[in-house]
Amino acid sequence: MHRVAAAFCLLIPVLLAADAPAPAPTSQASSPTSRPANVDPAAWERMLDIDTRAGRVEDLTADFEQQKFTAMLKKPLVSSGVVAVRGSNMLWATRKPEPSMLQIDTKEVRIYYPAQKTIEVYQIQQKLGQLAASPLPRLAVLREHFTFEPIPVAEMGERDDNSGKFFAVRMTPIDPELREHVEAVRVLLDAQRGLIIRLEMRDSDGDRTLISFANVKTNVGLKDGDLRIAAPADVKITRPLAAVEGGTHKDGK
């Protein structure tokens, strides 16, 4: 998988806006109530409150628009579609400019290209599987991989009207494997609903990806089939990194 695509697949599930059950804290250091030294008490209380609100979201659907900014192009690459999330499963259905589908769970990523009738399958690294599968891991999980720095909401394109509706934070990866791909992520949250409104990821090459969400609907009762790629019976399934990933795979449609 292309380096940027790999980073996208690992980061986006970390930062969408629903929640999967978090593991019990193993130490005080990993407890979500243990405030990081660089985050002031008021900001940390807001983050804990948002974390609690996100925990009430069992599933969601949303429209998304992604803009990819790179020094090689004068204009950003723009794509849009819909995303569905439930627990540890996600399905991104890109409608423009070309149809494709991205299915993610705790173990693998599947990318479907209808025009080619092909599904590409990639394993998710075990140590990052928890991040990749949980759209908004609880703070105890995020703290194992990122540092936090609250930032003005104006940096994310919103006016600060002191209403407390929005909260913005910069996340910097401390995990070496994430740092290979991601320099920093800035996130704008709807603090009242515990949902991502906008996020910006800057990769290690200096390229920037901006994703905005709209028409977010929560707890809509998604079923298993709503989170799976619907492909014809004659679709070709490939594993481009099989030689690197190792192991024996049994693919289903």
**CATH class annotation:** Mainly Beta
User: What's the arrangement of strands in the largest beta sheet?
Assistant: 7-8-9-10-11-1-2-3-4-5-6-12
Note the main sheet. 12 strands, mixed
Assign the CATH architecture: Clam
SS summary, helix count: 6
Average of per-residue pLDDT values: 80
| Low-confidence region ranges | 1-30
Number of strands: 12
Number of domains: 1
CATH superfamily: Lipoprotein localisation LolA/LolB/LppX
Question: What structural class should be given to the helix and strand makeup?
Answer: alpha+beta
CATH fold-type name: outer membrane lipoprotein receptor (LolB), chain A
Q: Termini, distance in Å?
A: 20 Å
Outline the fold blueprint.
Elements: H1 3-15, H2 41-54, E1 59-69, E2 77-86, E3 89-96, E4 100-104, E5 108-113, E6 118-123, H3 129-133, H4 139-142, E7 146-151, E8 166-173, H5 176-179, E9 182-190, E10 195-203, E11 208-218, E12 236-238, H6 242-245
Parallel strand pairs: 6-12
Antiparallel strand pairs: 1-2, 1-11, 2-3, 3-4, 4-5, 5-6, 7-8, 8-9, 9-10, 10-11
What does this protein look like?
This protein has a single domain (3-21, 34-241), classed as Lipoprotein localisation LolA/LolB/LppX (outer membrane lipoprotein receptor (LolB), chain A), CATH 2.50.20. A 12-stranded mixed β-sheet has the order 7-8-9-10-11-1-2-3-4-5-6-12. Helices cover 17% and strands 36% of the residues. It has helices at residues 3-15, 41-54, 129-133, 139-142, 176-179, 242-245, and strands spanning 59-69, 77-86, 89-96, 100-104, 108-113, 118-123, 146-151, 166-173, 182-190, 195-203, 208-218, 236-238. It starts with a helix and ends in an 8-residue tail after the last helix. By secondary structure, it is an alpha+beta fold.
